[in-house]
Amino acid sequence: MVNEPVNSHSTQLDPGLADDLTHALTSGQYFLMYQPTIDLQSGAFAGVEALLRWRHPERGVVSPEEFIPALEASGDIVAVGRWALRTACLQGAQWHARGYRFVVSVNVSANELEDADFVHDVEATLVASDFDPALLVLEFSQRALLNDPEQATSRLVSLKSLGVRLAVDDFAPGRSPLANLERFPIDLVKLDRDFIAAITSSSEAASLVHTLVLLARSLNLQIVASGIEDAEQRRRLQFEEVDIGQGFLFSRPHEVAEIDRFLEDFAIFSGKPL
Length: 274
What we know:
By secondary structure, the protein is an alpha/beta fold. It has one domain: EAL domain (TIM Barrel). Helix content is 43%, strand content 20%. It has 11 helices and 9 strands. Strands 1-2-4-5-6-7-8-9 form an 8-stranded mixed beta barrel, surrounded by 4 helices. Helix 3 packs parallel to helix 5 (118-129). The relative contact order is 0.14.
């Protein structure tokens, strides 16, 4: 639900903000921004990732790196995550009703995956929003999956039965072998943005991407590259046949009105399908 990976060792939230955070959900202070993703091979619009933000009534928008760890530590991330999923699906259903048929991705915390009601909440959200489950991607960190692999596998199998797609977020080849994830019924692997930043300056990083793509193909997985910031990174990733790209090169995160304008402009100027 955040644009960048949240560092678990982030500075603790200011005590005043921590008190305010307990009322942020009931006060309607959370909102979502959406960052587009692009098919690197065809140039087509692939979808959006929903990103949680907090608009404090006095301090303005608070960085997710500040408040997400506090939500996770308190356990409130479960309720906030439920709100974010519902909001993203309702918005996605509106876009789809207008004729767009792209994917909406939502991050899921370890706390949410461990919650006994999580699968039921996803199913109820899909029904209530009338959102096509085939166009929903749920993104999980490796930590969320490896905390309790047996339970995670069971939950992921149940989610797959609903028709949604599953992704592993912030994957860094070299730090963690893809073989660690083979036990899970995932569909996409999302490369860590720090790794993407090194792809044009490190032959090792480029080699690891090449190897990962070959292995992913053998496992029928799609590869998503996050944090693409320049044309050379895009060119390298295209050459290695990475599937999907996301980053400031294409678009920063935007609220719904700006995404609507982005979609209109994209359709007009790119000539690519939505």
